[in-house]
Amino acid sequence: MLGLTVVTAICVAILIALGTWQYKRLQWKTALLAEVEAAVTAPPLTSLLDLEKAVAANEPIDFRRIGLSADVESIAPPFLVYQPRKDGIYWRAFSPLSESGQRLYGAFGVVKDDKKDSYELSFLPQGQAQIAGYIRKDYPMGRIEAWVKSKASPKANRYFKFNQTGDWDKDGAINTQIYLDIDADITDASLLPIKSPEIRNNHFDYMLTWYSFALILIIIYVMLHYRSGRLTWS
Known about the structure:
single chain, alpha+beta, 6 strands
C-alpha cells in the first residue's frame, strides 16, 4: 500500500502544518487583544507630542483616546475613503492636522455619495480647533487583501482604505502610519467612551480541528493495515 502511505503522509503533513499555523495565529491574536485592551483602558493622551513619545516607547496606541488643540489644514478636496452603512454609501473625509510641529491625518466625518462631488463638507473645522478622538494605526494590506480590495481612483478621489495608494504624503512631512478618528460631537477626550473593537479569536478551535483531522487520518491508516493483517499487536 505504498500509494496510500505516500498520500497519507502528505495529507498528515499538510494538516499538521495548518494546525501549527493556527497555533501561531492564536499567539499573535492573543497578544493583539492584550495590546488593544491596554490601549483602550489607558488615560487619554493630550497632544501629538505625547503620541510621539508613546510611539517611541512602543506603547499600545491603537484605539487609545486623545484630545488636543490642533490646526486643521484645509485641502481641497479632502481625501475621501469609502464608508459602508446600512442606509447607503458614504465617504469618510480625511484632512491633515498639525500641532507643535507634528502633522498627521484626521478622519473628521462622512458625506453621502450624492454629495461627495460637490464637496459639501461644512462639518470640517477650520483653523485651530479643540478635537477629541481615537488613535488608529494604519496596518499595511496583505497580499490577498490587496488583490480583492477595490482599486483606488485618485482622479475621482475614491479610496477604499486610508492612504491606499501610499501617496498621501508626497512631501514626506506627514506621518501616514497613524491617523485620528475624530468624534464630531465630543471635544473632551475624557468623555469619549472606551471604543474596543470586536476581534474574534477562534484560532484555538481551528488549531484543534486541523490536529484532530491529522489524528483521525492516522487512526484510519493504522486500522486499514490492521484489518489487512499487515499490523498485529498482542
